[in-house]
Amino acid sequence: MFEVRSISKSFPGVKALDAVSVSFAPGTIHALLGENGAGKSTLMKILCGIYGPDEGEMLLDGRVLVLHDTFDALAQRISIVHQEIQVVPRASIAENIMLDKLHRYRRGPAIDWRRLSADARSFMDMVELAVAPETPVGELPAAQKQLAQIARALSDGARILLLDEPTSSLTLHEADRLFGLLRRLRDQGVTIVFVSHKLEEVMALCDVVTVLRDGRLIGTHPRDELTKDAIITMMIGRSASSRWRGLLDVDRGTPLLEVRGLTSELFDGVSLSLHKGEILGLYGLVGSGRTELAKTIIGEHRAAPGSIFVRGMPARIRSMAESLHRYRIGYVSENRKEEGLILGATVTTNLVITVWSRLAGRVFRFLRPRREIEQAAKTIAQLDIKTPSPLQTVRNLSGGNQQKVSIGKWLVADCDILIIDEPTVGVDVGAKEYIHDLIWRMAKEEGKGVILISSDLPELVELARRVLVFKDFRIVGELADLNERELAAEDTSLRIGQFLA
User: Fold this and answer.
1) Is residue 171 classed as helix, strand or coil in its secondary structure?
2) Per-residue pLDDT of the chain (501 residues; tens, 9 = 90+)
3) Most exposed of 341, 349, 374, 416 (fewest Cβ within 10 Å)?
């Protein structure tokens, strides 16, 4: 039995955990749930030795357990897979999996690379990572990097496995394979602590559910005693709204954005159009071409001349700066940690970076901190970003609030066209509802054109009124005039399955 008793932890300006007590039994998959900022990540970091508690104690098999760092945790066979991808990009998959065990493979002054790769392959097979072990991790997409992290945790022979949003980068098929592995580990007596914002996963996989809110324990219950609505109420203190949003007022005149027969190194003949006041959904498996299309539109990937049109005029976009300042196109990256935010900078800097030229003095062209903070404060209030100060470092915010900052900088820029890639990955149900409302208002009330890329089909059906289905860098189908009835009947999922077959 792994237990925490009356654990408390404070940081400047916030009490992250307040006298939390939980028991994690062997051979169970134990869900740890709560909104962003509820204390889940703090508790997970205490469980694996990254943080020490201010008060309270941990016990393992009835004995007090003191962890000074992650090495102490690994010695007790406690291993964690972080939500943030933490790999050595230039090292191989095998090296990343065996990173803390390389000394075992010394053969004189050299490393026995063949034996290292063979042993790593056994753990890669467990997570069905079908790539050569010698492949540099930096060349992998996010989903395969996540699988490599899980394989590394398995290589530690963990008897207590901590998983923080392990499926955030995985496709449904990859997640199903992972769940099969977790069930096998549970049956072998491994204790699994599972953090996820996807309640469907929790209901299908977990045995026990613990909910935190504002750093306090709300309750621990067997999963079969709870409904999804009951869990949501425990998490946010009220029931989540579920409503039909209605139709959008789409201007069918000249498209805001048009892609005509796009030809590039990746695409051959892709076409689409986006109108004022429209939310256009892009659906497909990871690697199907959705994100690559977005990056081609904003100039990160090269496109042939005459492929992209903005407001009816040919557009030659060669950089993100040009897409923003010349064509008023913004892009919210799916990877907020590496692409969407400057983690070491303040909330203010991240929010106003897209409008620095606008905020600079007209004569001397230097930034005025007061104007920056005033603009940031307005956006913080508008998006309800939970931060003790506009000068707080973004790295110290919860995932949901980081995502709000990532979206907020493009709201400050007042783009006419906004491409939003996986807007609610790794955010809680309350923040997800807020972000959905925000996207809807941008199209409905402000007349912006939004391209919404999402692997969450209910999310697409709730917000988009037209969805394009991608496969192998081609558009293989289109669903028009989506409505709530289709979602209820699961007809949309079946139709998309036919396109992807």
Assistant:
1) coil
2) 899 999 999 887 778 899 999 999 999 999 999 877 788 889 999 999 999 999 999 999 989 999 998 889 888 889 888 877 788 888 999 999 888 788 888 887 888 888 889 999 998 888 888 889 999 988 887 778 888 888 888 888 888 999 988 887 777 777 888 888 889 889 989 999 999 888 888 999 999 999 998 889 999 999 999 988 888 888 877 766 555 677 888 999 999 999 999 988 888 889 999 999 999 999 887 778 899 999 999 998 888 888 999 999 999 898 988 998 899 999 998 877 778 888 889 999 899 888 766 655 454 445 567 778 888 888 888 888 888 888 889 888 877 788 889 888 888 888 999 999 988 876 777 778 888 888 999 999 999 999 999 887 778 888 898 899 998 899 998 888 665 544 443 556 666 666 766
3) 374
Q: Which two tokens stand for residue 81?
A: 């897979």
Q: Report the alpha-carbon distance of residue 142 to residue 167 in Å, rounded.
A: 11
Q: Considering all CA atoms of the chain, what is the largest pairwise distance in Å, rounded to the nearest integer?
A: 72
Q: Which domains does the chain have, with CATH numbers?
A: 2-236 (3.40.50.300), 241-328+415-501 (3.40.50.300), 338-405 (no CATH)
In angstroms, the Cα distances linking 67 to 77, 153, 431 are: 12, 18, 33
* Beta pairing, strands 160-164 & 257-263: unpaired
- What pairs with residue 33 in β-bridges? 211
What are the tokens at 416? 């006419």
Give 129's contacts (C-beta < 8 A, 6+ positions apart). 93, 144, 147, 148, 151
Q: Which residue type occupies 438?
A: L
Q: What are phi and psi of 225, to 5 degrees?
A: -95, -5
Taking CA atoms, 304 is separated from 19, 264, 309, 322, in Å, by 60, 6, 12, 17
Q: List, edge to edge, every strand of the sheet that includes 466-471.
A: 329-332, 417-421, 449-453, 279-283, 466-471, 474-480
Q: CA 5, CA 23: separation in Å to the nearest integer?
A: 8
Provide the 3-class DSSP secondary structure of residue 375.
helix
Cα distances (Å, whole numbers) of residue 99 to 80, 102, 120, 147, 360: 14, 6, 10, 15, 47
Classify the C-alpha dihedral 170-26-79-60 as positive or negative. positive
